[in-house]
Amino acid sequence: MTSDLSFISLVAGASPLVQLVMAALLLASVISWTMVFDRARVLKRARRAAEAFERRFWSGGDLGELFRELDREEGQATGMATIFHAGFREFARLKKNPDIEPMAVVEGARRTMHVAMNREMDGLENNLSFLATVGSTSPYVGLFGTVWGIMNSFHALGNVKQATLSLVAPGIAEALIATAMGLFAAIPAVVAYNRYSNDVERLNGRYEDFLDEFTTILQRQAHV
């Protein structure tokens, strides 16, 4: 209990600028933790959706029926399902035109799938840049608050005749809290950014592999 009161008193006794730095770091930490949990939920759902769709796609069923099933799901499809739906729809539309070469039909479907995949990746990468920013800047923001607080502590020593540790210790302690808060905000953000960036890259690889495999299937169907 004493340590909590001591911590609160140190923060309350800090200079206004140091308090502003602490408040900014606390806000950044709260927002980054919110985004950490949000990205964990989004990426977990994306992995499960990819696994579920791969099972449906490679089950040997009719692709036209799969396309109609996704249509009936009324926009609930995500990830690979969205890429497949966009590509198959464009493929069917272009193939109705007898004047278009088969390879042009396939290429048109492939471009449409790339657009759909990029949109899906944008959704997965959302907020990762904020985590990277918090992870890279928070230690420096905290260090700025520490330097400012120590400067104020030593400046106060100029107004006394005899400098003692008891005079300078509280000011240095409150200044170091800013550094600690900067690290508290930065470390989870860096860990989460590295983990989620790797997850996004792996999903991107799965999407690209599926796009290539589905394009090969469309090439065969284009000549039928």
Automatic annotation (TrEMBL):
Its main location: membrane. It comes from the Bacteria. It is a multi-pass membrane protein. It holds the Pfam family MotA_ExbB. GO terms for biological process: bacteriocin transport; cell division; protein import. GO terms for cellular component: plasma membrane. Keywords: Cell cycle, Cell division, Cell inner membrane, Cell membrane, Membrane, Transmembrane, Transmembrane helix. The chain crosses the membrane at residues 20-38, 128-151, 171-193. Residues 80-208 form the MotA/TolQ/ExbB proton channel domain. It is found in: Cell inner membrane; Cell membrane. InterPro entries: ExbB/TolQ_transport, MotA_ExbB_proton_chnl, Tol-Pal_TolQ. The Tol-Pal system is composed of five core proteins: the inner membrane proteins TolA, TolQ and TolR, the periplasmic protein TolB and the outer membrane protein Pal. They form a network linking the inner and outer membranes and the peptidoglycan layer. Belongs to the ExbB/TolQ family. PANTHER family: PROTEIN TOLQ (PTHR30625), TOL-PAL SYSTEM PROTEIN TOLQ (PTHR30625:SF3). Part of the Tol-Pal system, which plays a role in outer membrane invagination during cell division and is important for maintaining outer membrane integrity. This is Tol-Pal system protein TolQ. The gene is tolQ.
